[in-house]
What does this fold into?
Amino acid sequence: MNQLRVVAVGHVDHGKSTLIGRLLHETGNLPDGKVAELRAISERRGVAFEWSFVLDALQSERDQAVTIDTTRIWMRTPQRDIVLIDAPGHKEFLRNMVTGASDADAALLLVDANEGVGEQTRRHAQLLELIGVPRVVVAINKMDRVGYDAGRYTAIRAEMEALLERAGASATAFVPTCAREGENVALSGSPHMPFYDGPSVLEALLALPERREAGGEALRIAVQGVVRRDLQRIVVGRIEAGELAAGREILISPARRRARVAALHVWPEREKVTARAGESVGFTLEGPFFVDRGDVISDTWHAPALATSFRARLLWLGARPLRAGDAYRMRFGTRTANVEVTEVERVIDIEFLDRGTSGFARTNDVADVVFSSPQTLPLDGVDEYPGLARFILLDGLDIVAGGTILAPLGPNVSNDLVRVHHLLDADARAGRIGHRGAVLWFTGLPAAGKSTIAMQIERRLFERNCNAYVLDGDNVRAGLNSDLGFTPADRHENIRRVGEVAALFADSGTIAITAFISPYRADRAAARRAAGEAFHEIYIKADAQTCERRDPKGHYRKARAGALPDFTGITGDYEEPQTPELVVDTSLLSIEAAVEAVLAYVEERVIAPARRHAASWP
Amino acid sequence: MTLLDELEARSIAILREAYFRVSPLAMLWSMGKDSTALLWLVRKAFLGSVPFPVVLLDTEMELPEVYAFRDELARAWNLDVRNELCPPETSSDQTLPPATRAAARKTAGLRALIAREKLRGVIVGIRRDEQSTRAKERVFSPRLPDGAWDVKHQPAELWDVYHTDVADGQHVRIHPLLDWTEVDVWRYTQREEIPIVPLYLARDGKRYRSLGEKNITVPIDSNAATIDEIIAELETTRQPERAGRVMDHESEDAFERLRTGGYM
It folds into this structure.
């Protein structure tokens, strides 16, 4: 039978370390002299013999008789090897408890028969599901303290059954024990507890079923990186699920590119054709595909979703409360993404009563949270691919949360779209046209000069034999976006569509010039995502007074009169670009000078690179 | 997957995380069975090569067979082995018991190496089952600026999602063998035919079960002359692995003090 890793959890002082110490002793797993050594240490410290000293090895742990950090110890039995993971029960050390538990296959949950279910009993039970340890053996300990009372055992058992059910876990046994005296620890049938005829703790652990990897069957590999050997680029990573085989077609996300596995590589070299879940592999792809750390390799028939927003459940460990608007870095799979808290949907109370939309989570709370990211992320839910859905949240260098991705959200979720690829690439198009496609995204206040400059640039580029086209606000609203109004949602959608269309223009080899106020950073970031490296944000800058003085369309006048609610520049907010590729200040430059500045930029950044590239061909 | 396959796959994944996330990086190699098996895993992870320097913290007190093994393997495996000469014992914390004080020379050597090479990561082949303070270690274990281990304030480490960022001027210890046991290492050494220092095998009723420096390590009574016999011995023994390491038994807190000070 396979090795089983069992974490002991429960409220502080309910006897976890003692039970483990006793279990090791009774199964002959303590080295010779250990008991004598512990007896000597206990005497030196002037305390009664302490089984917990087997595990609580730190001086501070022995001084305070409390487990501070998780530890583990190996127990060999004729039937199966068990790795016992001791976890602290003190609230202050919850991060160490989850550290221990996150490595376990099953949990041994202890409850003090005298004290009953404690705060940390509840919290630990609740965390087992989040951590992914749903199989539990419950030990109702210190039965000697309640006179081995069957009624007390039954009452705690009923309470624990209900608690675990609410937590999404279930227990295979409820064992009444007296760990200090070894009753029902290794051997069952304590003379003090004739009411109980079930297994001992050890028997219950040995009876736990084999660990089974839950979840999806399609291939998943989070790419760790690329190892260069000779002239080969060997992609390395661990197979999370499914099977990898030479010759098979796979999909690379988030790029959604199809590729074929050329070969699997192992050292020392030998023929290897397939690899399965759990293996750390190296493989090459046919063709010059670009794969990087953080990419997810999948089967073509079931890829991870692509989304910029998702719902997650987490344990908040940060000292400050978690609130909407907070920004963190999230690590999952092999990816690190910037994320922002869109909403703290609910905090799950340790009594499992929904606290409702409190809007924030405090230290040690479990909460459901919606996150968004400026990047499109390849996402899998925890039910299907737990290994890729587990994350840590970083605030600077501090781990402030751990959790699981429940589900991707939002309009950008797509599981089944697989891009069809053109038989031409950007180089081929640039070779014909003489320049690459691009998006020149003009942004700025009304009357800053966007449209005027855009139209002049279009004509000047045309005269230079370039393909250029202006997407102008009013023109687009008359056609493509004629179904949109001016609500906030419609304004976002307006810009989203323009961003996508501009990206298609750029892909076709055209220099698309957009002249939209596009006041929101998030919208401009989405447009940048759509066009990728072809995107150039050009801030047509002018202070509000200058714009209002110009007012060629009379909008400022109308807005002052109250006829244009939410007019950007007066009542709406314009979010200035933080790192635009180019800033053109029209309150300082004439229109002619502004046009020349943009043209010089386009010459250097869009046209010249394609020339250099063309010149490098034989 | 067998247990050995699982341990191997996980260790390789850890080594790759370290390599792709932490730089500059080095690995400690004491020529013992654990760090030699680890070196083998590095070669598996990077398809034959060892993409970072391999360092011996040298007190000039290793047994001659150990130095011979180093030279032989460095040649055969084409390793970039650096010898870091450790400062004399007088530089160690003088309040430590004698053998522990001798062992602390390696802490000082490691500290000097990290400072000089500006290392952000050091890969070390320790295991949780060796010693009870090592049992509390993290796979990616951040260190304070002086290399100390803040055992009371270790960060969470969840699943295989490792926190690999390192604060400026600090380093992280990476422990790819943490989940292996002594007998796992021997079974793996046997399966993969990894070379070992012959001192591990019994001669005249004695063998080194844990290989340390000659001034602070003693061989144990044993007749295990092959790896098979070592495995059989370990399956029944009730002696701890480090029984022959003098420093482990000097005082209750000696090893903890050594490790929190920055020892491996």
Chain A touches chain B through 63 residues (CB under 8 Å).
